[in-house]
Amino acid sequence: MASYVVLLVIQGLFWSIALAADQSLLQDFCVSDPRSQELPSGLACKDPNQVRPEDFFFSGLNVAGEITNPVGSRVTPVTSAQVPGLNSLGISLARIDYAPWGINPPHTHPRASEILTVLEGTLEIGFITSNPDNRQITKVLQKGDAFVFPVGLIHYQRNVGSTSAAALAAFSSQNPGVVSIAKAVFGAAPDIASDILVKAFQVDNSVINFMQSKFKIN
């Protein structure tokens, strides 16, 4: 009887893992058809006979992105939106450029883990574990170093050098999504009620009003 119970537990464990994993493709590829309606699993496939090499191609990751924002970083995404051939493959990339002392502000990717490789410069990186510990895991990376950010956790990068830096990020999703913490909280449309944020952040209402004014969408 005990052996039977153990067998059922093991079988249930493998069944749970199978349900959690992405479904395997039953064809070579599924290049997205931009005319189709987006579904939870991605866009519908276009006719394989209409597929071209350009559907799997992206150029320009060797070029540094122009940085014009106050945080001092620029992200160049390579997701299924830019490369239709990534549709249903569960992977994507991004190049991140940093001005001296620029940051990629605290954010999360709700649908993907990330592995970041430093191409140039020196980056201080970190992520925060979930409640209740909220432990910060941080390290300084040099050119050629790589670091992993687990799916859904808040993380950031900062260029700690006096010259520009660059990194390449790989994601376990064709569309990892981004939630920028400050922008999401203080730039929500419509606004999150100020009394909620006053209690959440334990600050005066004037501070909340100021922060919301900084992140308003023009």
- Any idea of the CATH class of the domain at 66-177? Mainly Beta
Straight-line distance between termini? 67 Å
Strand content: 25-35%
Q: Structural class of the helix and strand makeup?
A: alpha+beta
Question: Could you give the order of the helices and strands?
Answer: HEEEEEEEEEEHHH
Low-pLDDT sequence parts: 5-10, 13-22
Strand order of the largest sheet: 1-2-9-4-7
Give the CA-based shape: globular
**What is the correct CATH architecture of the domain at 66-177?**
Sandwich
Largest sheet: 5 strands, antiparallel
CATH superfamily of the domain at 66-177: Jelly Rolls
* Number of strand elements: 10
Helix content range: 10-25%
Average pLDDT rating: 89
Please count the helical segments.
4
CATH topology title of the domain at 66-177 = Jelly Rolls
Disulfide bonds: 30-45
Domain Cupin type-1: 59-209
Binding site for Mn(2+): 107, 109, 114, 155
Keywords: Apoplast, Disulfide bond, Glycoprotein, Manganese, Metal-binding, Secreted, Signal
